[in-house]
Design brief:
The chain is mostly helical. It has a single domain, classed as Hydantoin permease (Orthogonal Bundle), CATH 1.10.4160. The protein is built from 19 helices and no strands. The protein has helices at residues 21-32, 35-48, 50-78, 82-90, 96-129, 136-154, 158-192, 194-199, 208-220, 223-230, 236-264, 271-277, 281-310, 316-333, 336-347, 350-361, 377-396, 403-416, 419-428. The chain is globular, with a radius of gyration of 21 Å.
Length: 429
Amino acid sequence: MSSTNNKALTPVADTDRVFHWHEHASLWFSLGVGLLVIQIGAYLVPAVGSRDALIAIVLGSIVGSGLLAWTAKLGCDSGLSSAGLMGATFGSHFARLPVILNIVQLIGWTTFELVVMRDGTAAIGKQSLGLELDGTGGTVITTLLWGAVLTVLLAGSMTRLVRKIIGRFGLPLVIASLLWLTWQFGGQLSSQGLDAFWARSGDGSMGLLSAMDLVIAMPVSWLPLVADYARHGRSGRGALSGTWLGYAIANIWCYALGVMVVSVAQPDANLVSSLLLAQGGLIALSLILVDEIDNAYGDVYSSAVSAHSIKPAISIRQWGLGLALLSTGLALVLPMHSLEPFLLTLSSIFVPLFGVILGRLGTGQPSFAPAQCKVDWASASMWVGGIATYHGIAHWMPQWGAALPTLAITFVLAAFFHPARLRERSFAG
């Protein structure tokens, strides 16, 4: 990957470093809020019980958000995008493979987010307004509507969107929605008796460690994106603290809200229906649904940066507009229920990938210069071995969770076999 006129592979200019710590926090709080997070929180209670669910949520969010923040600091310190960090770790040619895989998964997740917003809109329209939007015509209209909103956002400046729209307007409204829903469901939970809530046990289908792994998976899923935004920060410390604080709070809050919803909802009631039944739920859910567009934007913008790293003749904005249109088209035709397992499998490859990146660039005296070789075989081998380790643990030891052990193993290996440390040991010997 040539860095000539390549905005993804060259450090961002000082004039574009505009994010303070609170803007990092605003962005990642907004990206941490989502219906999917609330839904997964609801899954935890039947599996492990209320007490272990909340323990897993707090510990998993702190650890996972810390990893996200660490990667953000690397992006800010280097000024490089995620594609640039991959190139510095794996070599200029080999890095194309994870970059392309990242583009594929981000297009998939953008498509998935559009489907979530479409289905949420249909549910709101049916239950609150009596509109039938789940037919062919309604599906096409709502998909195109959200796709148009996404395309319009991508036509503007990413930094201006974060600073002026998300920070000033979007964030207060989303926080107000979460506060209202927390008040509503917290009140219902209290009226039913907190003792019964704390005493609720799980069915044993998941252990505490595997529950933590599920919680950690959400912030870890953003690892391939975070540097694309953090590189615009004024300081690495601000990127670290803002990202960690913003995402951790959002992750804990949304997971915990899911726990509260499932604890008071009627059996067999779906998440959207339960939220709508709350007083003021329509407004609160609508605002959360609008916030989902941030997630779609985050995915497609980062995929545009990655695509630009491979073909810099096309600008990031042009890539973004094209990929937004592609994702909208895919949302109209793809069977998302069959696509989700593929996306989750594809996402698993980035856990060991960033274990290697953090071990190489996050320890010692990191060098963010492009790798001198086309293929760094040591890094590549650790990544491939890490993928095998991830799936091996998931298959034979699911009770341990796969994400955190795999990340730890690849990190330790990458740090131990860091070229600088190898030279030091060679000189010492």
